[in-house]
Predict the structure.
Amino acid sequence: MNHEGERLQKVLARLGFGSRRACEELIADERVTVNGETAILGRRVDVENDEVEVDGAIVGIRPDLVYYLLNKATGVITTADDPQGRPTVVEIVPDEPRVFPVGRLDADTEGMLLLTNDGTLTHRLTHPSFGVEKEYLAQVTGVPSRAALRELREGIELEDGRTAPARVTAVEDSLLRITIHEGRNRQVRRMCEAIGHPVVRLVRTRIGPLVDRRLRPGEWRVLTRDEVRSLEIAVGGDDPER
Ligand code: URA
């Protein structure tokens, strides 16, 4: 028996599985395993190393990792520190523990932005090789032709190279839903500009599996366990080194 670490029911309660009492029942009902073995009451876990599952689903038990979802408003800067003193995304969420934005949205772009101190997930969500989709609604000037939309889909020659194929649908005449998985600097704006229909308003509406239509501009919330798990699955499962 491991005499160090935290009591399993306490860890589970902190993660939102109910009161300590309810979590003791989960354990007594043999619904919890630690490193593949059915846990018994009184079990302690090392939150850095042990793998806990409830009803067969792995639960991330590292208490030091936090994940926030922000609906960024226009005018807010995606950086940890703006030398010009403009409002930044990190000022909106709690300052302890220190978190960083996952990728960036332009000052004039709105919508979903993740902030976390989970470096592994950040790397995987932002690195193009993991191919995580980001979906945008782009209000553009004029009405792009079918040929222009096809160009966007097939790839556009930009100064830093050709863009990868994108999914593009016209929701309305001047409103495009654009799904990309690269995330180059001002990519959507540059793509639309290249077809002669500059963006007038840009909103990120999805990051991989994550959507939230209720969060208002400027609001943030903590990701649920299931959402964190869905992001981990989107980038290829748990990192064995964590
Ligand atoms: N593409 C852009 O052009 N701007 C953003 O903020 C995000 C994607």
